[in-house]
């Protein structure tokens, strides 16, 4: 992730940094709108399952292939019920926050463009 965060021009990095909260609120808005349109939320969690896998084991004289019992992380998704009224209130709050953050980001974006012209 650190390598990806360094991608982009200095201006793009500055703008991304200045609008990080705005991007997160936008992501949450999309999620809540999706929940309302579907009528349910989708919950994701990572579970660890164990599987037999081919692995290499080093002995004192050689490296051999053998089967090993190894953990494998998987993302599991499931539908969960929502309270539509609570989701609508959440949506309204996020829309308000998005508008506020957008107004606050404008001068920061302008400062980034002035500090790092392309």
Which characteristics define this entry?
alpha+beta, 54% helix, 118 residues, two-stranded antiparallel ribbon
Describe the protein's architecture and organization.
There is one protein chain. The protein is α+β, with helices and mostly antiparallel strands. A hairpin with a 4-residue loop joins strand 1 and strand 2. Helix 2 packs antiparallel against helix 4 and helix 3 packs antiparallel against helix 4. The longest helix is centred in the last third of the chain and has 32 residues. The mean pLDDT is 91.
Query: Strand order across the biggest sheet?
Result: 1-2
Query: Order of helices and strands, N to C?
Result: HHHEEH
- Stretches where pLDDT falls below 50 for ≥5 residues? none
Q: Report the radius of gyration as a whole number of Å.
A: 23 Å
> How large a portion of the residues is in β-strands, by DSSP E?
25-35%
Q: How many beta-strand elements?
A: 2
Can you tell me the overall shape? Answer: flat
- Count every helix, treating DSSP H or I runs of 4 or more residues as helices: 4
State the helical fraction. Answer: 40-55%
Structural class: alpha+beta
Overall mean pLDDT score?
91
Distance between the termini: 25 Å
Q: Major beta sheet, specifics?
A: 2 strands, antiparallel
